[in-house]
Task: inverse folding
């Protein structure tokens, strides 16, 4: 009887120690900036722009209306002589012609023989576009391409070996670093809806020809502006971005589970106050108690079993995410390395280190240490 009692006690203790740990995803909101490739001091973030419209495009929009749509996020627009100066020109939009076309659908049997065929008719109209944008601004922070680097090296070698130039002061050519151009030239196609016969397709096109042309013209103008804004903001802008990040929280009715639910509620409430273009110093300070709590889990669950490793994993993961969102990538890397050493889902640790290194690289390129930079007003 004594042996049975001992066995029962042993089984109870074993089950308690090996109880299953369930972690659930809990989402919280974050808002930050995508940093530019080119560093420009805060007080110099001004841009000016001029717009020219030619040909049929003048029927669709005015230069002033298009100019209002050109935008470098986080920068101040000035009338002239901005640090970045833009010449935006949509020169022309020309219809090249139209032609009927046909699409056939065939059904085949198991031997490959055609057993049915259906034909669909439509009209294809073609257009040619011309346009460009000239962006004059600092791009010296951008690394030279491999081809540019080789050309510069060859130029410097030629200077060094030329007996008449080796002692001369030769000014480097910086014109390549004073701006860049975008091209809106191209060919566009419009396909009408499909009809059962070619006559109906041609009739539809003739009736709606002007409407189809106007649609393509509008698309060309709108897409050119969108492409320009995307490109210039990738180079200079501080584009806001909103995401949902996750924390792994214990799903249990235990005291630990209740504490973790309180923790994620606090994280959600605090990160809701985050704004892309405002400092996060107060948020960092308010997050300290939560960071201390997640940090305590590492020393609370120290056993070398799966449940304990799983709890430590959640602590390392949650801390790494929080540090990333607080613009502290070095601390995120430290937690991710511990996550990998913990030997529970190492891939998450590796992915986190990759994100942190990308953030460090973007800080270096933009010459900042935050994804929450104010706008110049």
Result:
């Amino acid at each position: 009887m004594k042996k049975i009692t001992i066995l029962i006690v042993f089984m109870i203790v074993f089950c308690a120690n090996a109880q299953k740990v369930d972690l659930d995803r809990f989402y919280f909101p974050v808002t930050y900036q995508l940093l530019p490739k080119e560093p420009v001091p805060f007080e110099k973030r001004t841009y000016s722009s001029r717009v020219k419209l030619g040909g049929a495009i003048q029927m669709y929009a005015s230069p002033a209306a298009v100019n209002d749509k050109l935008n470098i996020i986080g920068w101040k627009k000035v009338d002239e002589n901005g640090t970045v100066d833009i010449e935006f020109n949509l020169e022309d939009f020309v219809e090249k012609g139209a032609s009927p076309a046909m699409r056939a659908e065939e059904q085949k049997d198991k031997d490959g023989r055609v057993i049915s065929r259906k034909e669909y008719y439509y009209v294809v109209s073609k257009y040619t576009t011309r346009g460009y944008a000239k962006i004059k601004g600092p791009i010296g922070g951008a690394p030279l391409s491999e081809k540019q680097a080789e050309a510069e090296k060859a130029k410097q070698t030629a200077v060094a070996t030329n007996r008449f130039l080796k002692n001369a002061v030769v000014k480097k050519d910086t014109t390549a670093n004073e701006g860049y151009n975008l091209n809106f030239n191209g060919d566009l196609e419009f396909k009408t809806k499909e009809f059962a016969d070619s006559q109906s397709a041609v009739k539809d096109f003739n009736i709606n020809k002007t409407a189809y042309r106007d649609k393509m013209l509008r698309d060309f103008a709108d897409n050119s502006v969108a492409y320009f804004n995307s490109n210039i903001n990738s180079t200079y802008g501080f584009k806001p971005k909103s995401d949902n990040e996750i924390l792994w929280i214990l799903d249990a009715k235990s005291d630990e589970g209740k504490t973790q639910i309180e923790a994620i509620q606090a994280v959600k409430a605090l990160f809701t106050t985050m704004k892309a273009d405002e400092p996060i110093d107060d948020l960092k300070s308010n997050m300290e108690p939560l960071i201390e709590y997640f940090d305590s889990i590492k020393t609370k669950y120290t056993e070398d079993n799966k449940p304990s490793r799983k709890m430590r994993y959640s602590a390392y993961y949650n801390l790494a995410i929080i540090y990333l969102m607080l613009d502290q990538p070095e601390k995120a890397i430290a937690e991710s390395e511990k996550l990998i050493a913990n030997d529970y889902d190492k891939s998450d640790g590796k992915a986190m280190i990759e994100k942190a290194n990308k953030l460090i690289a973007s800080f270096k390129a933009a010459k900042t240490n935050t994804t929450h930079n104010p706008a110049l007003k």
Remarks:
- Residues 42-139+178-235 form one domain.
- The chain has nine helices and eight strands.
- Confidence is low (pLDDT under 50) at residues 1-18.
- The beta strands are 23-34, 46-53, 76-77, 84-108, 114-136, 179-183, 186-191, 239-250.
